[in-house]
Structure to design on (161 residues):
C-alpha cells in the first residue's frame, strides 16, 4: 500500500468507520479516538496491508478497539451522589428513534455491532465476518437472534408507539 492509497482509504472509509463506532459507543470523542487509532495502525502497517483488504483491516481494528474500550469502561465503577435539587424528572415521550435506540441497547456488544454493520452500514455477511472475526454462519445466527430480541422488545405494549 502506498501513501496515496492510504490517503484514499482515509477519504473513503473514515466516515463509515466513525459512524459504526459512534453508533455503538454513543460517545463521539471516544469514537474519534478509536477511529484515529485504527488509521494509525493502518499507517504503521502500510507494507503488510493489501489495498483491497484495507477496509476490512480498518473495521476489524476499530471493532477490536471498541470492544477493548467497552471492557475497560465496564471495569471502572463510578459513585455518583446527587442532591435533591439536581434531580430531574423525565416525562415519557413517544419517540421512534429513542425506542429503536433503547431496543439496540438491550443487545450485547456483539449483537449490536452485527445489526449496525448489516442493517445500518449494509455490509455482507462475509465482510462482517472479516471485521468481527466470526465465520459467516455465526454472523447469520447471531444476527438472527439479535433481530428476534429487537422484535420481542419492540412489540411489548409499553414500547409500541
Amino acid at each position: 500500500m502506498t501513501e496515496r492509497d492510504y490517503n484514499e482509504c482515509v477519504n473513503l472509509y473514515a466516515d463509515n468507520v466513525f459512524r459504526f463506532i459512534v453508533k455503538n459507543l454513543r460517545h463521539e470523542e471516544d469514537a474519534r479516538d478509536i477511529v484515529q487509532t485504527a488509521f494509525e495502525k493502518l499507517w504503521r502497517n502500510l507494507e503488510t496491508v493489501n489495498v483491497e483488504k484495507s477496509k476490512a483491516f480498518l473495521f476489524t481494528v476499530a471493532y477490536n478497539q471498541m470492544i477493548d474500550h467497552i471492557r475497560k469502561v465496564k471495569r471502572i465503577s463510578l459513585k455518583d451522589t446527587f442532591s435533591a435539587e439536581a434531580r430531574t424528572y423525565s416525562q415519557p415521550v413517544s419517540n421512534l428513534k429513542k425506542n429503536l435506540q433503547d431496543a439496540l441497547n438491550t443487545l450485547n456488544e456483539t449483537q449490536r455491532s452485527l445489526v449496525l454493520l448489516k442493517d445500518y452500514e449494509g455490509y455482507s455477511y462475509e465482510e462482517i465476518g472479516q471485521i468481527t472475526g466470526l465465520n459467516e454462519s455465526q454472523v447469520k445466527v447471531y444476527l438472527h437472534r439479535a433481530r428476534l430480541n429487537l422484535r420481542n422488545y419492540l412489540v411489548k405494549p409499553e414500547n409500541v408507539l
